[in-house]
Amino acid sequence: MTNNAKKFKNLQALEYEIRRLKTHSKALEKQFDDNISQIQENYIPMFLNSVLPKQYRFKGIPATVLSFFLDNERFRNTFIGLSEEVIDRISDGIDYLSEKLRKKQD
Asked: In three state form, how does the secondary structure of 33-61 look?
């Protein structure tokens, strides 16, 4: 460690150096607080980027979770079958309602 001690010839120079060092320490405290705030705000994305493979990065948490599930072939096939069933039921419901509305108009 180097010795940065300065010899001051008068009290005014010493007081100036004390003020300068206090100002510098305040600036360092602010920079430290800003860095801590940034870490707190970005903790989850940094964690996910360090743990997840590159293909899942930058998608967001819901998209990443969905991607994990859709990578599984069995889940994907079940999801597709369920989606088709739901769409068929919705279509049947719409057809039923449109027929009822047509009968009421006649």
From this structure: HHHHHHHHHCHHHHHHHHHCCHHHCCCCH
Sign of the torsion angle spanned by Cα atoms 82, 84, 89, 90: positive
Q: pLDDT (tens digit, 9 = 90+) per residue, 52-85?
A: 656 555 566 777 677 777 677 888 788 788 888 9
Please state, in angstroms and as integers, the Cα–Cα distance from residue 32 to each residue in 5, 70, 93, following that order: 25, 42, 60
pLDDT digits (tens, 9 = 90+) for 24-60: 999 999 999 998 888 888 777 776 666 665 655 556 6
Copy the structure tokens of residue 73.
């072939």
Residue 74: other Cβ atoms inside 10 A: 7
Count CB-CB contacts under 10 A for residue 98.
Answer: 10
- Residues ≥6 apart with Cβ < 8 Å to 44: 61
pTM for the whole structure? 0.41
